[in-house]
Specification:
CATH class of the largest domain: Alpha Beta
CATH architecture of the largest domain: 3-Layer(aba) Sandwich
Strand order of the largest sheet: 1-4-5-13
Strand content: 15-25%
CATH superfamily of the largest domain: Nucleoside phosphorylase/phosphoribosyltransferase catalytic domain
Structural class: alpha/beta
Amino acid sequence: MLITDLIERKKQGESLSCEEINFFIKGYVEGIIPDYQATALLMAIWFKGMDSRETTDLTLSMTHSGDVIDLSEIPGIKVDKHSTGGVSDGTTLIVAPLVAACGGKVAKMSGRGLGHTGGTIDKLESIPGFCVNIGMKRFIEIVSETGLSLIGQDKELVPADKKLYALRDVTGTVDNISLIASSVMSKKIASGSNAIVLDIKTGNGAFMKKIGDSVRLAEVMVEIGKLAGRKTIGIVTDMNQPLGFSVGNALEVREAIEVLQGKHESHLKQVAFTLASRMLMISDICATESEAFEKLEDAIASGKALFKLAKMIEMQNGNPDVVSDISLLPQAAKKIGVKSDKKGYITAIETKNVGIAAMMLGAGREKKEDTVDPAVGIWLNKRHGDFVKAGEELAIFYVNETKNLDDSISVFKSAYKIGDKEPDELPLIYTVIEE
């Protein structure tokens, strides 16, 4: 078998066999197939696409390029949740304790952020003492006992994706639905859960800007999950503004804790409940969404969800007292109010620019080696559709280093579009795609 034959066949729009896909993935991971030939095949795939069978074969080949986690020691259905990413998306910190409080099992591996703000692991590490590298044996023990554990991704998990994504990133082949879907689903399947709930973001702060593309991506990922023997649900949600009020690691932990304390009736809570309800349904704990919502509300009102979060923090060497005293989280040296220059309705928010403003304060990474400051970030006082007066605070900046402050404020203000007419309300949940 020759890689040039695969390139030529895909260039002509033909389907690749499972054996051919395995040959490509194995050869590229082992360094037998060079970057320039892998790029040629990726570009052919970008132009000609892959059918459902090819996409699933690619996903499974990537899955088995490294370790595959065995969670069979944990009793019951293990359910995972994945978001395609956005700004102020701290749903994992809310969803996992909620599902565990209702009897579910959430064994989740998460990554660090590269870009606007930190990833789930960066957020967790803002909790004093919290350890994300606890080993697989301890991970399984914690999930078995408490119903949840959140840890960092193992470096041997899906090496094919790590290598291929780095190549796609520099060759203009990132934005292909089959390649995106196989990248996400290979990691989810390798992580060992029986069931997967996917949060596919759409809008100006999402990777997929158009609703049609987001729905198609969700459909492809759900189909992959089905063909791979995993119960899978895709939910398309809005990212035309930051999901929560907070942008920044400790701030997002604070907001998640406050949601679990029952303090916020917000978009963040609504999306978290939608995701958690489907996780309960796919775990065979609840039959309907209304039943699941009732259980979730009780988990907050009774304090069970907050207890689950505290228990996980304690078992992963963190300080569980943060759930009752958020002042134990890292604190910024300064709080600076950012005021509106004019009055009117907030008609649009360029979500990506809000994330970039937070990154400039130190809340995210521009380069992989950059250090994240857990204390800094932005707390939003005004959202899409709100009326704001001239001189009224749009947000509070939590700041340690001031060298980029003026530029950060400028980028943030440019994100807010203010007009005379009240805009239509944005949808929050667009569609739910099931098997």
